[in-house]
């Protein structure tokens, strides 16, 4: 699979030359010594990919569906020692931009410098990372993990870059003059260095990001060094970067999202039993492609589904007959639809394919069996549940209605509203509804939350007193005297509960009210979850929810 | 092999030419009334007569201001090797005064083999520069300051411009300040005290005319006859280029390219058109060894991308549903909408049409985030960051027609969605 190549996204390419090259390759899985060899003296050779270069055919077969992009890139980069204009590789996430570019350089076997704006999250880190690589400097304990040069301004970067580049050019020049015995495969290295900057779109979010972007886009014309080829990799199309400053346009190379057939080929790579997997993909890929066509998102779900698919099989090596395929498909079919809705869920356990299926099955048959739904997927104390509901109510209901909602003297009965069916009022209602949706959940002070909490906790107990856990709370009204009683545990560490709910992001703090000066809270729970929690407490939530 | 070799060599040669701005602009500067000769005249008289001068080069981006200046400076350095020194600053890098002074001091030190101190203060640097200017004036050495992105220096207090131009008011100094800017009103940005010290010389750079352009094309693409190419190949190659350039189809193609481009971004057209050549060269097929009209066409189409359409084509079905929902909300003249209201619309669509693509909210939320990542949609305002993403108002970044066109060319867009988009 292509998953290995995704690791390279997250690798800090600076750690050491040796590991860098290893982790990048998508073919070799073994990682040798992770610590840089002390005796290893970095040379210019380390600027190339560092492994045996691959042939064009191998490169093309490594990336199904990327043929025209690879050929385009190679043509644009040009033959050996040929100057080139800046190139911008762009396309959606997980379309193989980084891997293709790096593998192309492996194929060409030319020196390059790779820095990702994901790991180098500030101009200084980015500049220093580029310079470190050019100056063949690796951070290690002996130099206190410091960079070769301190550099945080673009102007300094240009000067240092010029210097470093001319040094590298000199060594490259002298190398190309002498015999190339040091290269194992005798392939030429050339007299150019390429600068590959990944995730350029992230710079937009940086402080003064537009300035840095303009600088990077005009770096080619500022430097005036044709020996430096620049390749920018971006997730966003070039039109996003237009500003009133302008720049010389880099040449765009577009990586479209993989089509279904291409995905089929990608997933089929490195599979032991191709026939079986192909049959599996035939049945699975189509519905999933409607949701997403990203390889990284698909690969996790599909691999766990394949495990389910293979479950009835004893021998994974056999090639399936038509009949078997059909049987397996029928078995898998009910699992696909729920999995579609699970596709983005990050599982907390690595191998919970089975678990998940079970839970889903439970949920799917819940329509008949209501009891099972009342179990929550996570554990929560009773008081926390009440608090959650109280917060939900406080966010959804207008504060002015609290009295009529929670007044035990029957305020609920005078909730009759005059209904005018006139068109104007309907229109108004619609607008109000829209506004409510736009505003999202409202905010509330802590006092209101606690008041509602007390009310609903008492109501929950009086109306459902037969419950075991509710029993102790019948004397809620006398709570002032009952500090030693068990039921007051529900009240005593309420603030602690509130803060833990805040930590769990069920409730968020939302800035202080300018008039009152106290912190206001906001409930972030969806209605579904609130209803679920209420059901688990047998609390009649809908009775208290104000509907416009 | 014998046939392939010259083609590849020709390709490398042309590529090298394209990346070399001096080669590109050399032919445009031969005539006596060209910007090149004007600029050269001004600078060389101030060198020979030992006077101060300041010039602004104005023109759209990519019209060759910096390249022509480089040509001039290169020639002058050859003519007067001992009496010219060049200091280059770029507004992108040195718009900060402190930084600019430091850079000037550094370059002066480099030029005159002096020791540069990084720790020098702003004051020390500016004193050093003025002293150096005086020394250079006494030694009859002209310092040429090249200020690229001149308008960037006009931001802030303009201390750099003031002190440079003020130093030039004295008799002893001998310097030329050349500003390069794509803002035609660059001199209006100057403060009064700076403007009064500035000699209002401006040279305007215009994009080349069609005739100039054609001759430039020929200049760029035709092979020299005195090189190591087989002679038959050179004449064949050049004939082919000539026939392509005079071809009306090619002329029309160029015209449409110019028309489209001047509306979208007229500033970039010249450089872009060079890029087109570049692509054509890249796609030149090595078998015949000759450029063909098809090469130019292919290069043009590969360059004229429509990123928004591509983005729509990249969308999955769920994402398309969301886009259609947002579009429908816009048609309904709902002033603003967020994820929750989009989901509501999605549900009503599902309820009334019973589509097969109805997914859970978390899937849709993820699809929503994908769209945001791809800059197809974005938050309508920066306020309200305390809200979670679902409630923040959104807006579409593509027009209805783009969406329509993109969905039409989408590989597997359901027909129903297109219908939903229309009403």
From TrEMBL, chain A:
Location within or outside the cell: Nucleus
Please verify whether the record's keywords include Transmembrane helix: no
InterPro entries, from UniProt?
AAA_16, ORC5, ORC5_C, ORC5_lid, P-loop_NTPase
Q: Where is this region: Disordered?
A: 18-45, 348-368, 405-430, 463-486
Q: Which UniProt keywords apply?
A: ATP-binding, DNA replication, Nucleotide-binding, Nucleus
Residue intervals of the Orc1-like AAA ATPase domain: 63-218
Please indicate which superkingdom the organism of origin belongs to: Eukaryota
- The biased composition feature labelled Acidic residues covers 464-481
Compositional bias annotation for Basic and acidic residues:
351-361
Identify one Gene Ontology CC term for this UniProt entry.
nuclear origin of replication recognition complex
Domain Origin recognition complex subunit 5 C-terminal intervals? 380-545
Cite the GO molecular-function annotations of the record.
DNA replication origin binding
ORC5 lid domain: residues covered: 277-325
For biological process, the GO terms are: DNA replication initiation
SUPFAM superfamilies, alphabetically? P-loop containing nucleoside triphosphate hydrolases (SSF52540)
Which Pfam family, an example, fits this chain? ORC5_lid
Q: Which family does it belong to?
A: Belongs to the ORC5 family.
UniProt-recorded name of the protein: Uncharacterized protein
Automatic annotation (TrEMBL), chain B:
This protein's major location comes to: nucleus
Question: Could you tell me which residue ranges the Origin recognition complex subunit 4 C-terminal domain spans?
Answer: 216-406
Q: Which GO terms describe its molecular function?
A: ATP binding; ATP hydrolysis activity; DNA replication origin binding
User: Which keywords does this chain's UniProt record carry?
Assistant: ATP-binding, DNA replication, DNA-binding, Nucleotide-binding, Nucleus
- Kindly name one Pfam family recorded for this protein: AAA
Single Gene Ontology BP annotation: DNA replication initiation
Gene3D superfamilies documented for this protein = P-loop containing nucleotide triphosphate hydrolases
Its subcellular locations are: Nucleus
Domain ATPase AAA-type core: from-to ranges: 55-201
Transcription recorded as keyword: no
Listed InterPro entries: ATPase_AAA_core, ORC4, ORC4_C, P-loop_NTPase
One of the record's GO cellular component terms: nuclear origin of replication recognition complex
| Family as reported in the entry's similarity comment | Belongs to the ORC4 family.
Q: What does this protein do?
A: Component of the origin recognition complex (ORC) that binds origins of replication. DNA-binding is ATP-dependent. The specific DNA sequences that define origins of replication have not been identified yet. ORC is required to assemble the pre-replication complex necessary to initiate DNA replication.
Please give the name of this protein: Origin of replication complex subunit 4
**Organism (species):** Eutrema salsugineum
């Amino acid at each position: 699979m292509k998953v290995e190549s995704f690791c390279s996204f997250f690798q800090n390419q600076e750690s050491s030359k040796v590991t860098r090259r290893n982790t990048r390759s998508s073919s070799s899985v073994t990682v040798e010594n992770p610590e840089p060899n002390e005796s290893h003296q970095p040379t210019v050779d380390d600027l190339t990919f560092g492994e045996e270069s691959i042939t064009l055919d191998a490169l093309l077969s490594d990336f199904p569906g990327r043929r025209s992009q690879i050929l385009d890139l190679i043509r644009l980069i040009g033959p050996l020692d040929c100057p080139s204009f800046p190139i911008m590789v762009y396309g959606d996430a997980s379309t193989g931009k980084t891997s293709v570019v790096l593998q192309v350089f492996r194929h060409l076997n030319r020196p390059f410098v790779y820095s990702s704006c994901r790991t180098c999250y500030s101009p200084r880190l980015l500049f220093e990372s580029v310079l470190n690589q050019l100056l063949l400097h690796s951070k290690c304990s002996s130099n206190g993990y410091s960079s070769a040069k301190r550099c945080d301004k673009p102007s300094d970067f240009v000067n240092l870059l010029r210097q470093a580049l001319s040094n590298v050019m000199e060594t490259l020049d002298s190398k190309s003059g002498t015999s190339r015995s040091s290269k194992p495969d005798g392939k030429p290295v050339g007299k150019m260095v390429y600068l590959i900057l990944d995730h350029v779109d992230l710079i937009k979010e940086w402080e003064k990001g537009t300035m840095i972007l303009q600088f990077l886009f005009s770096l080619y014309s500022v430097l005036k060094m044709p020996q430096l080829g620049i390749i920018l990799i971006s997730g966003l199309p070039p039109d996003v970067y237009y500003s009133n400053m302008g720049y010389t346009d880099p040449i765009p190379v577009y990586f479209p999202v993989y089509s279904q057939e291409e995905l089929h080929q990608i997933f089929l790579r490195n599979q032991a039993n191709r026939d079986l997997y192909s049959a599996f993909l035939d049945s699975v890929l189509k519905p999933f492609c409607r949701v997403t066509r990203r390889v990284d998102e698909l690969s996790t779900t599909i691999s766990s589904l394949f495990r389910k698919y293979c479950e009835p099989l004893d021998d994974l090596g056999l090639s399936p007959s038509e009949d078997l395929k059909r049987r397996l498909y029928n078995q898998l079919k009910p699992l696909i639809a729920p999995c579609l809705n699970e596709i983005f869920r990050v599982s907390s356990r690595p191998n919970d394919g089975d678990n998940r299926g079970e839970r889903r099955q439970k949920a799917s048959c819940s329509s008949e069996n209501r009891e099972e739904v009342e179990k929550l997927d996570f554990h929560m104390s009773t008081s926390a549940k009440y608090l959650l509901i109280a917060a939900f109510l406080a966010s959804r209901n207008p504060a002015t209605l609290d009295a009529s909602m929670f007044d035990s003297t029957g305020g609920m009965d005078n909730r009759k509203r005059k209904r005018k069916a006139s068109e104007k009022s309907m229109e108004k209602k619609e607008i109000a509804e829209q506004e409510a949706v736009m505003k999202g959940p409202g905010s509330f002070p802590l006092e209101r939350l606690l008041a509602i909490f007390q009310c609903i906790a008492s109501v929950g107990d009086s109306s459902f007193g037969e419950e075991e856990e509710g029993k102790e709370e019948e004397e809620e009204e006398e709570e002032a005297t009952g500090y030693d009683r068990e039921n007051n545990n529900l009240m005593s560490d309420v603030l602690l509960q509130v803060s833990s709910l805040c930590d769990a992001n069920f409730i968020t703090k939302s800035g202080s009210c300018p008039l009152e000066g106290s912190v206001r809270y906001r409930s972030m729970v969806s209605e579904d979850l609130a209803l679920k929690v209420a059901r688990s407490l047998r609390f009649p939530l809908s009775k208290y929810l104000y509907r416009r | 092999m014998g046939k392939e070799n010259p083609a590849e060599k020709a390709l490398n040669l042309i590529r090298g030419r394209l990346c070399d701005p001096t080669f590109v602009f050399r032919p445009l500067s031969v005539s006596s009334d060209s910007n090149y000769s004007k600029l050269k005249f001004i600078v060389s008289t101030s060198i020979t007569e030992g006077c101060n001068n300041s010039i602004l080069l104005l023109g759209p981006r990519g019209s060759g201001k910096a390249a022509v200046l480089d040509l001039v400076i290169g020639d002058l350095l050859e003519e007067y090797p001992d009496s010219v020194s060049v200091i280059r600053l770029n507004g992108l890098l040195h718009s900060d005064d402190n930084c600019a002074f430091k850079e000037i001091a550094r370059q002066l030190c480099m030029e005159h083999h002096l020791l540069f101190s990084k720790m020098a203060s702003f004051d020390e640097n500016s004193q050093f520069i003025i002293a150096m200017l005086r020394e250079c004036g006494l030694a009859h050495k002209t310092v040429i300051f090249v200020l690229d992105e001149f308008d960037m220096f006009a931001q802030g207090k303009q201390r750099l411009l003031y002190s440079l131009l003020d130093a030039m008011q004295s008799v002893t100094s001998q310097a030329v300040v050349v500003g390069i800017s794509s803002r035609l009103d660059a001199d209006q940005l100057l403060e009064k005290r700076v403007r009064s010290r500035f000699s209002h010389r401006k040279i305007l750079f215009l994009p080349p005319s069609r005739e100039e352009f054609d001759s430039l094309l020929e200049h760029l693409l035709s092979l020299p006859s005195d090189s190591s190419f087989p002679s038959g190949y050179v004449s064949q190659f050049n004939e082919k280029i000539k026939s392509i350039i005079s071809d009306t189809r090619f002329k029309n193609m160029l015209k449409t390219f110019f028309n489209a481009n001047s509306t979208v971004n007229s500033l970039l057209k010249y450089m872009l058109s060079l890029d087109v050549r570049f692509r054509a060269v890249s796609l030149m097929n090595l078998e015949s060894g000759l450029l063909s009209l098809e090469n130019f066409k292919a290069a043009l189409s590969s360059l004229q991308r429509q990123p928004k359409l591509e983005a729509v084509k990249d969308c999955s079905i769920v994402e398309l549903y969301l886009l259609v929902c947002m579009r429908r909300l816009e048609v309904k003249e709902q002033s603003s909408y967020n994820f929750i209201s989009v989901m509501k619309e999605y549900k009503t669509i599902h309820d009334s049409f019973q589509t097969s693509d109805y997914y859970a909210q978390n899937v849709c939320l993820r699809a929503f985030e994908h769209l945001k990542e791809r800059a197809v949609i974005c938050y309508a305002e920066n306020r309200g960051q305390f809200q979670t993403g679902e409630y923040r108002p959104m807006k579409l970044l593509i027009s209805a027609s783009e969406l329509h066109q993109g969905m039409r060319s989408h590989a597997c867009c359901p027909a129903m969605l297109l219908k939903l988009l229309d009403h």
